[in-house]
What we know:
The protein is α/β, with parallel strands linked by helices. The chain has helices spanning 62-70, 72-81, 104-107, 109-115, 121-130, 142-151, 156-164, 167-172, 201-209, 227-236, 277-280, 282-293; strands at 7-13, 37-40, 90-96, 214-219, 241-250, 253-261, 265-270. The chain has a 7-stranded mixed β-sheet, sandwiched between helices.
Amino acid sequence: MVPYHGxxxxxxxxxxxxxxxxxxxxxxxxxxxxxxxxxxxxxxxLLRCSSKSSSPSGPLSIHIxxxxxxxxxxxxxxxxxxxxxxxxxxxxxxVGNPGTGESIDFESRVPFLHGMGxxxxxxxxxIMEHCHGEVYTNPKTAxxxxxxxxxxxxxxxxxxxxxxxxxxxxxxxxxxxxxxxEWVRCHEGDLPYSFDIKxxxxxxxxxxxxxxxxxxxxxxxxxxxxxxxxxxxxxSLNFPIVDxxxxxxxxGQSAGFTITYTNNLTFATVKxxxxxxPEFQPERCLAMFRRWVCREPL
Length: 298
């Protein structure tokens, strides 16, 4: 299985312009390939976007799927299984709030939460001093373990118990009184799968080196997979910068920041976006997607 958080889309070439695109609009850095792409969302069984789940989104992540489709000898079986027309060819992909399986996904939470004012200077300094070079989820020293335990407080699944058993919630779900006992979470870290792909970064490198346009975006308030970690692995690809770091705007207001690299790679943040960004900032994410898919600068 592939460790994956977030959302993804594969772009394939199609005959029609998206409704919001004009054929006279100029090509932009990060999406110079000819033709207007269409967005093909994978089936729900393959890809889910959920801020409530930390499990993989399906049998394949968007990174692996994109590479499989791009490999000519494997294209036809994939097209049949995903109900793609054989006349379509992949033109790019985008991933949002993406986990990679690398330790940076989680280690970036500490500086992110400190920068957001959520953890104290003292806790931050203790972790940085005693856990330097260690994975916080598997500390090697007692001091690191104590600091990590204080840091790693996730109440999401804990609070779901009270939400699900609230009478208002049960009434809204149509649960008749006395028909069901209390709701209890059935799985907590014991799902029957194992991680056999330790990192997806190499797949991003392979796809972008082949020239496929890629948009990697993060909500700047996402503490599950912070943008700091995503930005770090994007920079680790060592692609030269085409368009320097700058703000992008919607309705005269800053909607985030973006940077474009060679090999058609664009990274962007979405202001106010959590995990995942479209759930918290749908208007900004739609504007970002429309501009990118229409080959316009963000």
